[in-house]
Amino acid sequence: MASGVAKARRAIPSPFRGAALPLIAFSATLALGMSMQAPTASARPTAADPGPSARDVERSEDRVRARAAEVGRTKAMLAQADGELDRLAVAAEAAIERYNGERLKLQRSQQAYRDTQARLGEANRRLEGTRAELASFAAQAYRSNTGYNQMPLALAGNGGPQGSMDRAAMVELLAERRAAMLDRVEASRNVADVFRRQAQAAFAEQSTATKRADEARQAAQDAVAKQQASVQRIEAEKRRLERRLGSAQAHAARVKRARERALEKVETRKIRSEFTGSQRPVAGGPTTAARGVIVVRAALKWLGTPYSWGGGTVDGPSYGVAQGAGTVGFDCSGLAMYAWHKAGVRLDHWTGTQWTSGPHVPIDELLPGDLVFFATDTSDPATIHHVGIYVGKGRMVEAPYTGARVRISGIHRGDLIGATRPAL
Questions:
Q1: Which has the least CB within 10 A, 133, 140, 206, 304?
Q2: Where is the NlpC/P60 domain (predicted)?
Q3: Cα–Cα distances in Å, from 401 out to 88, 224, 306, 328, 339?
């Protein structure tokens, strides 16, 4: 009976050998029918038992059911493996974008510390200047005998009463000037104290930001390392499971993947041709639509570029950090920053501020160049972990995750949270 099933399977054309479970049952039924039409010598029907026997039929059906159950379990395991890969990629990407955010905050806190240090230095210079001016004034007053006990001078000085009145007026004027200078010294001291406190606060924030960035970097490194190790493990497991599905189904799966890749290549060529075919300047000046075309052209230029954690500057792909330190490429927010810089719009290297870089756009009103964002919680922008650049027809250019390359893919995923149109 087993040879009959095998013959029946080989009789089915190859495109259908990898079909779903009902086809397996059909194969068994076909084999059973063939057995009934052409019984073997050892199982030739007799008048007493026309055969195949009821036991033969039962065993055949048991084998079909067992095979169908195994295929079902294997498919479920494959789906679970794919789901785990997707989850790990999202977790790694979220950790990387958190690190990008902490790195941006650290840069800002470092700049704030440098600015307050400069202001403190200027305030100290002004304080020393007013102190030197006050000291010079006091020395001058002492030398001219106008800065201390004025009564003997007023009585015994030259010029009589008028001279005394003139000297008294001068003393009063100098006293006022001295008081004003003391006020300036005090004000300069107060300003210096304020800037000193600001500098201390900025230094403390810088230290805290450095710690947060280090922690975020370590978390991202751990997430990426786990993702890469799991990719290798799960891919090996998937290959093993696919072998269990049988050569026919494995062949069908390979054909399906090859067709998907071919369709992706066709779609990529069409999109590239649409945006980069003529390479003529975009008409209409710096309009929203014109900027969007410039952004898409800039991003499409780097299709096939490796993903590099922390990679990408306004000048193009670059070495990243940690696992990306040896790879020249882009991460998702680095690609968005680069492409929009080509259109004259400055973005940070972080999805957190890219999300707020312009008005939010309904998904059904997207234009090429708009940024589309993805989050682990689509009701909370704080969980955004990925960004892509819309190119039209539900597609985007993206730098997806460690181990992948810049590519064109669909935007309609379960974690799509919304879109932004960056503004000048």
A1: 304
A2: 289-424
A3: 10, 9, 9, 14, 18
Q: What structural domains and CATH numbers belong to the chain? A: 84-243 (1.10.287.1700), 280-420 (3.90.1720.10)
Residue 307 DSSP code: B
Q: Residue 189 is encoded by which pair of tokens?
A: 């001291």
Please say whether the dihedral angle defined by the alpha carbons of residues 190, 193, 195 and 201, taken in this order, is positive or negative.
negative
- H and E: helices and strands count for the chain: 10, 7
Distances (CA, A) of 255 to 236, 357, 420: 19, 43, 38
- Residues 6 or more apart whose CB falls under 8 angstroms from that of 198 comprise 116, 119, 120
Burial class of 134 by CB neighbour count within 10 A (0 to 12, 13 to 18, 19+):
middle
Looking at this protein, which amino acid is placed at residue 59? Answer: R
* The predicted structure's pLDDT at residue 125: 78
List average pLDDT for each run of 10 residues in the chain, which is 424 residues long.
41 39 39 42 50 65 62 68 74 81 81 79 75 69 53 51 55 62 70 74 75 77 75 72 61 67 78 67 64 94 94 95 90 97 96 96 96 96 95 95 91 96 91
pTM across the whole model? 0.58
